[in-house]
């Protein structure tokens, strides 16, 4: 019973599901609206670590997969994660909202938007919690595109908008080892 409680706390406090093999597009607008489109996977870090350390029986793995799938709501219209095996879940969703209502909150465990008092807005990639050790063999790689109608005053994207794209893009962004994703914008007006 205690292990299910621990898994539950880990999942609900977020920090135990790591995005991987994904494509994410985030649109952030001056009016406070955002749209995140995500297609990829999440890795259950705790289950992965236990599989690496001592292994799980098929029954234990199935129980954990069912628990995570049933109890973890990705926060988007009640969509659930679909278990793929080896502590991996597939996710395909669109999340929309107003970033001003949850300032500094994370969006589907992928990014966070910070609406600052100085009239700027920052989008940052989420890093594993301080002190939280990520098990060996895990990656968190994906492609990220951020589109905005605001003036961009700072970024570390691999490419910027041009003739064929409206987005600031981070290709093969490695969440665990690359510098923190950053884009800072100034609201117009």
Q: What does this molecule look like?
A:
- The chain is an alpha+beta fold and 189 residues long.
- The protein has helices at residues 2-12, 45-53, 58-71; strands spanning 17-28, 33-44, 82-85, 88-98, 106-107, 111-115, 120-125, 141-148, 151-155, 168-174, 182-186.
- The chain has a 6-stranded mixed β-sheet with strand order 3-4-2-1-8-10.
- Strand 6 (111-115) and strand 7 form a beta hairpin.
- The model is unreliable at 1-15 (pLDDT under 50).
Give Rg in angstroms.
Answer: 17 Å
| Count of discrete domains | 1
Shape: elongated
Helical proportion?
10-25%
Question: What order do the SSEs take from the amino end to the carboxyl end, as H and E?
Answer: HEEHHEEEEEEEEE
Distance linking N and C termini: 55 Å
Percent strand:
35-45%
**Main sheet summary:** 6 strands, mixed
The largest beta-sheet arranges its strands as: 3-4-2-1-8-10
Mean pLDDT: 78
Q: Low-confidence parts, pLDDT < 50 over ≥5 residues? A: 1-15
**Coarse structural class:** alpha+beta
Query: What is the number of helical segments per DSSP (H or I, 4+ residues)?
Result: 3
Number of strands: 11
Keywords:
single chain; 189 residues; alpha+beta; six-stranded mixed β-sheet; five-stranded antiparallel β-sheet; 11 strands; elongated; disordered N terminus; Lipoprotein
Blueprint of the fold:
Elements: H1 2-12, E1 17-28, E2 33-44, H2 45-53, H3 58-71, E3 82-85, E4 88-98, E5 106-107, E6 111-115, E7 120-125, E8 141-148, E9 151-155, E10 168-174, E11 182-186
Parallel strand pairs: 1-8
Antiparallel strand pairs: 1-2, 2-4, 3-4, 5-6, 6-7, 7-11, 8-10, 9-11
Helix pairs in contact: 1-3
């Amino acid at each position: 019973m205690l292990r299910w409680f621990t898994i539950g706390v880990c999942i609900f406090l977020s920090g135990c599901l790591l995005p991987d093999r994904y494509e994410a597009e985030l649109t952030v607008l001056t009016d406070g609206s955002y749209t995140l489109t995500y297609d990829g996977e999440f890795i259950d870090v705790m289950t992965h670590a236990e599989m690496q350390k001592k292994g799980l029986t098929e029954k234990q793995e199935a129980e954990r997969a069912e628990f995570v799938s049933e109890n973890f709501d990705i926060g988007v219209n009640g969509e659930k994660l679909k278990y793929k095996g080896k502590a991996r879940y597939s996710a395909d969703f669109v999340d929309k909202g107003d970033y001003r209502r949850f300032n500094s909150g994370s969006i589907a465990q992928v990014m966070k938007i910070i609406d600052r008092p100085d009239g700027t807005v920052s989008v940052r990639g989420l890093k594993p919690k301080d002190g939280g050790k990520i098990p060996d063999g895990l990656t968190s790689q994906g492609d990220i595109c951020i589109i905005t109608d605001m003036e961009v005053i700072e970024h570390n994207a691999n490419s910027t908008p041009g003739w064929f794209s409206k987005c600031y893009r981070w290709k093969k962004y490695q969440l665990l080892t690359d510098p923190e994703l950053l884009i800072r914008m100034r609201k117009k007006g």
